[in-house]
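Hello,

I think I submitted the 4-(aminomethyl)benzoic acid job twice by accident. Can you confirm which output corresponds to this input? Input:
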Amino acid sequence: MSGLDRAKKAAAVAAATAAAAATALLTAPAAVAAPQPIVGGTTTTTTAYPFVMQITDASQKQFCGGTLVSPTKVVTAAHCMVGETTGSVRVVGGRTYLNGTNGTVGRVSRIWIHPGYTGTTKGDDVAVLTLSTSMPYTPAKYVSSSQTSVYAAGTTARILGWGTTSSGGSSSNQLRTATVPTVSDAGCASSYGSDFVQSDMVCAGKTSGGVDTCQGDSGGPLLIGGVLAGITSWGEGCAQAGYPGVYTRLTTFSDLVTTQVNS
Ligand code: 4AZ
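Support: Only one job matched these inputs. Its output is below.
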């Protein structure tokens, strides 16, 4: 895994450490701005976005996001599934809060990881999970392979997740969402050089930074026009000016995903 992205498991440990450190600091300096959602957004619910799934370990501790695309299929990031087995993960739907016990816990009967996946900055960061039982939530539609114009620079995209609200910070107990503009491929290449694989990735974020996905948001949805168009994948830190978030360009993988959804 590249030094640019943050491994989700390491991020979870870092977040827990940061949370413990924060607990020790009972009096936060008043001048420090409160961390913002995802980074820079608002709280929302799985009622508003019923297709947003928590990907958890067997203890139901969230470590990534996912998107329900049929009653038994969940799209997530390949990097979320590396080292996982069908027995080691769960998919939790209908649970707005990380500390909730409501919703539906789905077991996984199959994990498909894109066979080309070797690391987030190499592309192919997509996986499809098959659930043992159906989720009673409305799935999201996802882009078809021909819909490449959805990524036109400046298009408003929506990000969602329970990830950290600042780089190296703690996760959000409540699902959060924000909107970010898509970035041109030239702009993203300027930021990331050869780590930006144009065929497989799309960037989104404000030039000034301040709004972004962060550790723990990986695998979750990037929606454009309410349709799943990207998967949270990687970036240099979170919400930094000049370093937009990088998302799996789902149009490239749409047909492969459909094969998995129908298998
Ligand atoms: C992560 O590790 C992660 N700012 C997700 C998104 C970004 C960076 C890291 C992009 O889950």
